[in-house]
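Notebook, bench 3.
Goal today: get a predicted structure for Nei like DNA glycosylase 1 from Bos mutus grunniens so we can plan the truncation constructs. The sequence was checked against the plasmid map this morning, with no discrepancies at the termini. Length recorded as 273 residues. Pasting the sequence as submitted so the record is complete.
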Amino acid sequence: MEQGRDRAGAVAKPADFLPIPIDHAPSDPLGSPLKTGSDIATSLEAHLAQPAVILPTGPGHPSHRMPEGPELHLASHFVNEACRELVFGGCVEKSPVSRNPEVPFESSAYSISALARGKELRLTLSPLPGAQPQQEPLALVFRFGMTGSFQLVPSDALPPHAHLRFYTAPPGPRLALCFVDIRRFGRWDLGGEWQPGRGPCVLLEYEQFRENVLRNLADKAFDRPICEALLDQRFFNGIGNYLRAEILYRLRIPSRRPAQFWRPCSSAGRARS
């Protein structure tokens, strides 16, 4: 499997959320009227009302679907809201069974914030003024695999499969922000850099995403069936199996139709941009 590209797989039915605007004719999937990130954000508001998708109500509560762009966006919202008033402290703790790298960070007081882009989430640990030992902020980039999510729980009630744990500092009840991943396909990397080769986020960078697709319609990726092309993260960063199935279902496009049928739309799409 190529870096930054997802494996194709079958999905039996559409989901309930679609990040790409579809209120135009199916014959012109990227055509007028042009939608922006604000339109997509409106759709997200309804999706955010379903916290069980990625924000478990209790330890070990499973996700309803594999985490794709919307789920990582939800996870970043959860981390930012849940951790906004919290002060974390001490070392970052990794489970002994995880093959991901240790996180060499220790601070007496630090904050945690999150930002999502496509299928990745950046977590930033920022020491507070006066914290010891003195050090620079540290960023990690997570990819959730098949079952990754974040949970905030009491430190004495850690959920199973909590492979990375950030503990709050005293005083007050000790809590733990946990990266939970039952199947252990999730990954984190130190440094905070987005994975090379991924295109603009389909949720938050819609105009750049659209232009990137139109500009590259001659790429050999679009010689493949559209169900395969939609998983190419160079062009569709954040799209996975369930979103692919929903997109094709709602647009009434046969999944094995060659993706090159978009090419006649290219010049018209550029003119409208």
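Residues 84 and 251 are 40 Å apart (CA to CA). Residues 69-83 form the longest helix (15 residues).
Flagging this for group meeting.
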